[in-house]
């Protein structure tokens, strides 16, 4: 998400103070559990090193990344934290995890065997977690393997740091799958008494304290995104994005706009061409073509719709109804007070996660409301 442009105006702004407030609010909701923080995909595109430092400064000690490379980068920023690698153990790399203090979330018998063999070779138990699949059918031990895993642990004397699983449908509050997974998870935990457990993502954390167990793992809610569909989003917005206008022109009724001549003007229109396209994460599905309503941006508090197809580097918007002087070099709001990540996601027919993690391209990233005394450089 960080860019390198020094010529284009605007850019991406991340409110570190808002991320910290969101984490603290979630920590309050999960008062009887430890609250971790999911920083995978560069902290959902907001910058894992800066966010990790801010959250550690605020009291977070447990972090979750997807890959060992993400873990290595985060370790440099928060050297005293505990870092779990959700993708598990990459074959033949156990010594590298240990060298960087990374805890793999083991998800198969082959991973468990390799980790136990490595621990034996080092003559010590090196921390790791276990992930069980409770119906998601992604990574994880099958429920029927619980007894076998238990025997392996008993024979080796190894005790995992945590037993984990992951919800498939917690963002849909009435979905039966969530209760079913929780029941299966409880059955798995019966094999591993006294070992801490973790099941709740953002949605699970917010849905019910029954899902909190010993640790919760918020992700999208920390970054201001909607965790549960159909409910008001209580989280503070975190990210804003403004991009410059390259050119303004007047076009006549009947003329077309953009590739494929896919949008024909229904009135005389004042167009602004903004320096933003799908190479920057502004999805092509936000195009306004034919009878399809596309995305929109905001100028001076007024929405300006996308006209024509979003191209790689530029997108046309209709500023006919925008009051006040608008000229090249002015910036438009792509994300901000008027347009949250879920507003853009709804228009693009996707989810806020994808908006956050794909806004990259050529725009600089800066931080505001950095906690006092925190160095994020």
From TrEMBL:
Keywords: Isomerase, Pyridoxal phosphate. This is Alanine racemase. Its EC number is 5.1.1.1. Belongs to the alanine racemase family. Substrate binds at residues 138, 312. The active site is at 40 (proton acceptor), 259 (proton acceptor). Residues 238-368 form the Alanine racemase C-terminal domain. GO terms for biological process: D-alanine biosynthetic process. It comes from Pelagibacterium luteolum. The keyword Isomerase applies.
